[in-house]
Structure formats: C-alpha cells, structure tokens
Give the backbone structure.
Amino acid sequence: MGKVIYVTGGARSGKSTYGEKIIFSSGKKRIYMATSIAFDDEMKSRVEKHKVQRGEDWITIESYKNLKSKLIEKSLGDEIILLDCLTNMVSNNMILEENINWDEVEQFKVDEVENKIKNELLEFLEYIEKSDHTLVVVSNELGMGLVPPYALGRYFRDICGRMNQIVAEKSQEAYFVISGIPMKIK
C-alpha cells in the first residue's frame, strides 16, 4: 500500500527542504519529479540550487503532465518520490497546455481546465495508493494572502487550493512549514 505525505507552506518557507529531509531519512531509492520549467535565468538558478542541495543520487523525471506514465517508465517499484511542486504542475497545465485569454474566459472553460488537472492528479494519487511507493508532495499554500487583482491569479489560486485539498485529504501525513519549521497538521 502506497503512502502520501503532503508538505505545504508559503514561498521560501522551507517546504522543499523539509520534503527532501523526509526523503533522505527514508533510506529508499529516490525519485525527483520536477514540475517546473526553467524559462529564465532566475528559474535556472533556482533549479541549480535545488540540484546541489539534493545531491546526485536521484532519478529525475522532468514533467508536469502524464505523471503516472512517466513514473512507471523510470520506477523499479519501491522508491520514495518527491513531487516538487504541485503549484508548478497546476500553472504549467493552465498556461502551457491551454491557449486562453484568462481575462475573458467563460466559466465552463475554467471548469474544463480544472477538471483536466484534477483528473491527472487523481490518477497519479490512485496509482501511488495501489503501489509500494511513498510520495512526498510539496505545494505552495496560496490562500493566506491577498486576493489577486487579476483573473488569471484568482483562477490559479482557486485551482491550486482545490488541488491542495485533494492531496491533503488523500495523505496519511501532512505538514505546514513556516520559516523552516515544520508543523504536523495530519
């Protein structure tokens, strides 16, 4: 039976570092599922810092979609997996996979995009639950700040919030990280 551990917090809260700590303490073979795309120098620098922080003893999967099939391609069976991060997965699926004017989008299209992301996530989590894997999901908590002043930001916040709820519900453990300090919430 697979296990899901959810780690959330604000930007630069230490959530990825805490997720990696969970992974390192497991003693299992490690898989890193990177959902971000380094479009600019700032993101390239962040990716490099994460690589150095993690070390080299990881299987890396770079993808924000088709997570189940990508994992099956690389997995040997009983690994511990770090998905970092769910927030990037959502944004890439919203922006890169869709050609939408988010300022003038109809609600049915927003629902369609969200359902596509939700189905991808549920399929992946159901696979994990039936496997021998442990999955650590890192995600930003976006609901504690200001309401974004533009439509895309509000849709993104709302969809991320609902995806975070799904992972939290399916998790056996959940942590909220503030200033590098993890608090167990489940």
Observations:
- The beta strands are 3-9, 30-34, 59-62, 80-84, 134-140, 173-178, 181-184.
- The chain has one domain: 3-184.
- The CA atoms of residues 23 and 80 lie 7 Å apart.
